[in-house]
Amino acid sequence: MLYIVGTPIGNLKDITIRAKEILEKVDIILAEDTRVTRKLLDAYNIKKEIIRFDEHADENKFKSVANLLKDNEIAFVSDAGTPNISDPGFRLIERFKNEVEIIPIPGVSAITTLASIANIPMDKFVFMGFPPAKKKRKKFFEEVFNSKYPVVIYESTHRIKKTLSELKELEDFECIIGRELTKKFETIYYGKISEIEIEEKGEFVLIIKR
Predict the structure, then answer these.
(1) How far apart are CA 200 and CA 189, in angstroms?
(2) How far apart are alpha carbons 193 and 173 in whole angstroms?
(3) How crowded is residue 136: how many other Cβ atoms within 10 Å of its Cβ?
(4) Which of 14, 128, 171, 176 could form a Cys-Cys staple with 8, CB 3.0–4.6 A?
(5) Which regions of 91-202 does DSSP assign to beta strands (E)?
(6) High-pLDDT (> 90) share of the chain, %
(7) How far is CA 84 from the centre of its chain?
């Protein structure tokens, strides 16, 4: 049995009852970063073996997981949020989808967290993840510009100002920006890019109105 478990994106109280129960009952937890997952488990006094499994996992790691799955129930978690949403996950699922039962344990996602307080209809939208760091950025932002639906993207603290500047070159978009969602310094911004004075610190989610 392999459980794909959604975890909090910031506030540890956002863990679901079911996710907590699964983490308590499995034999082993695969984690994108063992240190991050250990903090979550410590908060709920869950004592489990944690094994690192990230997007750089090699063939030896896959073989090791295959052996563990023969006699153990395993949960996989990413650093925060729902695995496979701009996080590791798909390679693990692709490898074992025909060998073990894979069960999704839904949880928090930064996408739906911000969409829930958007001041525009979000019955249809496009999620594009993180903009490329260097190559193909122009093409990425042209796709944002040409979308018929609101576009959701993620951005890091190091590139948020650059991304907003490049978006503004195409159009002074109306947007909703979430900074540090569910965390102590959570901030929500509404308005045109030119009107928003953003604090350049933390993790960001943007909804760009089209």
Answers:
(1) 13
(2) 6
(3) 11
(4) 14
(5) 102-105, 126-129, 151-155, 174-179, 187-192
(6) 93
(7) 7
